[in-house]
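Bench log. Compound arrived from synthesis this morning; before running ITC I wanted a structural hypothesis for how DLL sits in the protein. Inputs:
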Amino acid sequence: MRSWDPRIEEMPREDLQRLQYRLLKTLVYRLYSFSPFYHERMRAGGVHPDDIRTLGDIRKLPFMVKRDLRDNYPDKLFVSGPDDLVRYHVSSGTTGKPTVVGYTQQDLNNWTTSLARGLVSCGLGRGDVLQVSYGYGLFTGGLGLHYGAERIGATVLPTSVGNTERQIELMQDLHTTAIACTPSYLLHMGEVAEKMGVSIRDDTGLRMGILGAEPWSDTMKQRIEEWLGIRAYDIYGTSELSGPMFCECTEQKGFHVWGDLAYIEILDPETGEPLGPGEKGELVVTMLQKEALPMIRYRIGDITSYDDGVCSCGRTHPRVQRISGRVDDMLIIRGINVFPSQIEYALMGIPQVGQHFQIIVDRKGALDDMLVQVEVSRESFSDKITDLMAIRKGVEHKLRNTLNVAVNVELVEPGSLPRFEGKAKRVIDRRNL
Ligand code: DLL
């Protein structure tokens, strides 16, 4: 099957924009009339629904940020009444209060449709067995993928996270063809499998991974594909948008954002000015059809760029490139901006380096100090101190060239750094402790 819904996915761009404008206009009127929060926001911003006369007028509308959700905890931003809610999800919230997202039945339908389209676009279908190894529960990953895959008639194996050895046995026994989990959990699974004497490449039928929920670099993708013998597709979303929503197609050139459900802008994070195709900035999303918890111009904080050319897969909806980090992930080391994803990108291009690393930032006197602990690959791990010293020098050199700042590197034994079942935590910043 080429597209789940060709009528929408391949619709001419002008028709899509007309549809987006109609949906936006309806949304803005609805919120101005029924949401005290949006009504007040729009009044304070000096904008009335009548001012939205073109799609570009979306820029007149005020932004939303995560803080708005936290300040209105748990449900003060909901527009639907309690009788219309059919589900809650709650994001863990690393700082401050968690955020609660409510769904109407129609919200769940749209979320599922979004994933059905995405999964078909990366080649999943009837006859596939999708092992869903994202967490089920308050986190959106497990249930999101579950409903999307069932909708297209794939068979779901709802393993959730953890119990990794059992997962590998089931992968073999039930002939899993695709897995959905974080890239870091898949790496962990690959290692556990090897310890069990199982090669995912040779001893299972796994052919694809639908990986996301955390940043991962192109070099990491290549490694996963080569090591495990699969195609690795990026999937993106946040709980506020519904959950995992947008997935790469088989062209693997960024994930398609379904324009009938979401309108995207990329902005300069400092000035808030719009950026054009290919320019990197902060992703801002307006959900055009969400009922219970509408999101207008939501500044997610993720950094990326977009491409609005028609994809060679035939889909006309814009593509967003791999997320390179979050605005608030950026580390400032002696005045230089450093993103953990740049470190991953550099490290994964060095064959002697394993898959796992950890970044420890501290302050020595007045100076920031960054230590990158790097696992050596099993093949390169030897007792010869001279070999290890040469590898360390090579890694330091590559990181200095990539980041423009000197960092200390410590090589550690394969298997010694923490492994993660959900999202990886690679940075320990001790400066503010
Ligand atoms: O992580 C939803 C999700 C589940 C997406 C399963 C993909 C697969 P949250 O817990 O609310 O929701 O976290 C959202 O995670 O703002 C990004 O910073 C990061 N993130 C999600 N997907 C990707 C990705 C889910 N593919 C936050 N690449 C987002 C990079 C990602 N970062």
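What the model suggests: Residues 32 and 39 are 5 Å apart (CA to CA). The domain at 1-327 is CATH 3.40.50.12780 (Rossmann fold).
ITC booked for Thursday regardless.
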